[in-house]
Amino acid sequence: VQLVESGGGLVQPGGTLRLSCAASGFTSSRYAMRWYRQAPGKEREWVATISSIGDSTNYADSAKGRFTISRDNAKSTVYLQMNSLKPEDTAVYYCHASWQFYNYWGQGTQVTVSS
Fold it and tell me: N or C: the chain end with fewer CB closer than 10 Å?
């Protein structure tokens, strides 16, 4: 079982990034998928959720209007489109999959927003 995040990097304030999370080793289309993030010295916080078939999404207040979560079950991949990035979005972003009592985490990808 693997969740592998990619797409992080250094971006200027106001910029955009698209994170990807590729799932393997399990039937990810059964799972709700979430993005979390953890900034230095802070607790890990939830960012966004998408249902197993992609018909429902939810966002933390900090992400509403700027971030979009989506998924392509044919590619077993979940995305997080991040627009209008702010320095306070700097964090390690983690992908999470959950279904019944199963849940998996990725290793994270670093996002740094700085001029």
Answer: C
List the structure tokens of 52: 């197993």
Beta strand residue intervals within 14-90, DSSP E: 17-24, 32-38, 45-50, 57-59, 67-72, 77-82
CA distance 105 to 38: 13
Pairwise CA distance, residues 74 & 76, whole Å = 6
Q: State the residue for tokens 């916080």.
A: 45
Paired sense of beta strands 2-6 and 17-24, if any: antiparallel
Whole-angstrom distance, CA of residue 1 vs CA of residue 65: 32
Element (H, E) at 3: strand 2-6
| CA pair distance 29, 27, nearest whole angstrom | 5
